Amino acid sequence: MCGRTACCRCSNDYKKATGFFDEKTGEYKETDWYERPNCNLQFHPSSNLCPTEATPVLLSGKHCQSSEMQLLQPMIWSIIPSWHKGQYNKHGMTTNNARIEGLKNSKLYSKALQNGQRCVVISDGFYEWKKCGKNKQPYFIYAPQDENIRVEDARCWESAEFDRSRGWKGPKVLKMAGLFDVWTSPDGEVIPCYTVITMASNPHFGWIHERMPAVLENEEAVQEWLDSDGLPADDALNLLKQSETLRWHQVTSRVGDSRYKSADCTKPMKSQPVLSAFFKPK
To answer: Which family does it belong to (predicted)?
Structure first.
């Protein structure tokens, strides 16, 4: 699960939406956007992102030789196996999600886990499909929002504010625990990549799907997950819990087409008229 996401806003919006309190200055600070050397990845906002596309990811500044507590960096969604020698998106493995139950014994993920290569995957939300008989109904799933805020509404983003004394006042992005790696192509291009950690669903979400992403529900959890020096791998995994706060609404079935990138992908689906209504006496 978690095979489609939405990141509809520009990098400047996400820099503000992931802003943090800097204890050194006593003020809130926007997250800096990091461009890795010898890396040509570019993030392009989209309402319908698929694995192998680039999305914004939070990571500790130490992984980028920076003193910043956290940075935002575009990464390819799907870990590229270190032994792969071809095109980055042609390794033939499904690596966009990693089951928490097998991380420590995984040939693909255990090294990143033990090396402290933990990251936080941000998005406006993700899509999941609920089986309804022979059909599937897509849902857009996102973090709980403050009153009168809708994460899918561009007007809420445009009216949002960030200042050093209060931080970000606007739509809340979803933050999911992940692992990242950095793959070097045969031509020397550096490509950072990541996977989203998933776990068994709880009753709150299980009626939609049996698996759910490991959601980090507050800033403390985000910082603990990113702090691989202060929190060893086993303790970090114990930090991850099933979310009880996810929100969702039905969306258009057109989101199932990965080529469909319209803004209505994330919008609540308009209720359909009941067929019997057409046969009511006038």
So the answer is: Belongs to the SOS response-associated peptidase family.
